[in-house]
TrEMBL record:
Keywords: Signal. Belongs to the bacterial solute-binding protein SsuA/TauA family. It comes from the Bacteria. It comes from Cytobacillus oceanisediminis. Pfam families: NMT1_2. This is NitT/TauT family transport system substrate-binding protein. PANTHER family: ALIPHATIC SULFONATES-BINDING PROTEIN-RELATED (PTHR30024), TAURINE-BINDING PERIPLASMIC PROTEIN (PTHR30024:SF47).
């Protein structure tokens, strides 16, 4: 009897151990490390994908890190500290121009316009772009998409940013807003939610949108190395499907619902400001509603870079953009 009980206990313990192991094998998650260039409401669909469990539905466990700057983000990707980078598509062109043997491929677009706004120190009821002539303009870092898109828009309105205004470009991204708040410049190019916060606090007034003026462009895109796609094609497909689900969710839900979903990523920003920013980005079509980066957007990007004198060489759309993955998950 005792021997039978020992055998029964042994079988029971074996079953207890085997079941969790089997479950682990069945529900094993694939880890994906994202390096985002900055933390921004501009990237709302990404945070929706995380909060709504769209990545988990695809069997992905995502680790998100903010790397603060395009150069640092690309370094993280190239050094294998990240699997996927969320950054401006211009960075993939810069890497390609340096002769990389493992090109960085844009596979899922997140935003499709510039995300900055022109903020005036003084309230202007009837703004016109020529009001910037002769004024001090606090711009973005040279060579980055905000600066290039900003200069593209200024030239579109007949303003030479280097001749018709006092252009300041030597202030780090993190210090641009504080510099303006402390009295530097009469106009400044700012991202949200800073632009709306300044307006609410009376520190500045939004007078124009660079996103509306510059047209569709692959401003922020998920990209990875070609070798990663070759070795993890199914993972990249699952990742893209999760992003597409989030893009559709943001498109079909109110700005308030989106703001409430992503609020945890912006602890220092009030909910009404987040909602206002989401609504502003939605109304001007900044959030891409699908992950496809098309040829027209790619050419517009290179035209903007060329106009700013930052395009090392023209690169064909198919060389650095993979639309097959996005097209496949949308079917």
């Amino acid at each position: 009897m005792k021997k039978w009980m020992k055998v029964s206990m042994l079988l029971l313990l074996t079953a207890i151990l085997i079941v969790p192991l089997a479950a682990c094998g069945k529900d094993e998650m694939q880890n994906v490390r994202i390096a985002e260039v900055t933390r921004s409401i501009f990237y709302a669909p990404q945070y929706v994908a995380l909060e709504k469990g769209f990545f988990e539905e695809e069997g992905l466990k995502v680790e998100l890190t903010t790397t603060a700057g395009g150069d640092k983000t690309m370094t993280a990707l190239l050094s294998d500290s990240a699997d996927v980078a969320l950054v401006g598509s211009e960075t993939s062109i810069y890497v390609s121009a340096q002769g990389s043997n493992d090109p960085v491929i844009n596979f899922a677009q997140l935003t499709q316009t510039d995300g900055t706004f022109l903020v005036s120190r003084n309230k202007i009821d009837n703004f016109s772009w020529d009001m910037l002539k002769g004024k001090t303009f606090l711009g973005q870092r040279k060579g980055g998409m905000p600066q290039m898109a900003g200069e593209f828009v200024l030239k579109k309105h007949g303003i030479d940013p280097h001749a018709d205004m006092d252009l300041i470009q030597n202030i780090d991204y993190a210090n641009i807003a504080p510099a303006f708040a402390s009295g530097t410049g009469e106009f400044v190019q700012l991202f949200e939610p800073t632009a709306s916060v300044f307006e609410k606090e009376g520190k500045g007034y939004i007078v124009a949108s660079f996103g509306t003026e510059s047209g569709h462009v692959p401003y922020t895109t998920f990209m990875t190395k070609q070798s990663y796609i070759d070795e993890n094609k199914e993972t990249v497909e699952k990742f893209t499907r999760a992003i597409y689900k989030a893009q559709q969710w943001v498109e079909t839900h109110s700005a308030k619902e989106t703001a409430e979903t992503i609020q945890g990523y912006f602890d220092n920003t009030e909910l009404d400001i987040i909602e206002m920013v989401v609504d502003r980005y939605k109304s001007q079509g900044s959030f891409a509603t699908d992950p496809i980066l098309d040829t027209e957007e790619w050419e517009n990007l290179q035209n903007i870079m060329d106009e700013a004198g930052e395009l090392p060489k023209r690169i064909e759309h198919d060389t650095l953009v993979n639309t097959e993955i996005a097209e496949g998950v949308m079917k």
